[in-house]
Write a structure and sequence with these properties.
Length: 271
Amino acid sequence: MRIRSERSSVAWTAPLIVLSITIAGGCATKQQVTGLESSMAELRTRNDEIAGEIRSLKDLVQTEHELIMSAKADVLAEISGLREQIRLLENRLTERRDEAAFESGTLVEEGEITMPAPALETGQPSDAVGKGPDGGGGEKVGENRVAYDTAYLDMTRGNYPLAIDGFRSFIEGSGGSQLLDNAQYWIGECYYAQGDLRRAIEEFERVVDNYPEGNKIPSALFKIGKCFHEIGDTDSARQYFQTVINGYPRSDEANLAREYLVELGEPSGRR
């Protein structure tokens, strides 16, 4: 556009020079002056057309820029929505695993649910059926389990402060329960759901530190890495994702960690 403008300026200036010379020389005829004036008028018209084209191009560029920025915002919003869906699916997956574990009895602590005693030779069941080791000690255990289930229900309904209090009460009142690491993990999830990522990291770290043999270690390590990733601490995120892959290579969390490492620019997690 600058070249065209320069050419127009040259074209505009030339007739003026010729006109000045011819007039100065005293040899300009009326017909020549009229012709030069006509040329100048055409040049003015052409310059106006070029200026209009430039304005149109500027408007087009601005419109295209706005469309691109709008599309970018839509894509980012969609990515954010997909990440939220992934988080919800991860929680559901963890919940389903816990439910399956409860049903199979792998998370039932000693005395929490007592199995029927072997039938006597008479064919009648023992009177001890349904009682704890002390004939009634399972009552408090049952109350604690109700506290856990209530807190879990509060969490699924989005009542995170209530859920946190419930899980803490369960931890304080259930010394030997095999659900302690689960309760601590869900506390971390509650803070994560509220967007308090720093506090969530602290609570997930308690799972790793306090219950090293628990079944929630892979999930806690992965969520710590995810929290660091969302905070923007990519180095720490890589470290925790790699820890999950190295320590629990066949877990669902390891597969998710590999996907995040790819997103962070690494082809795949080291085995």
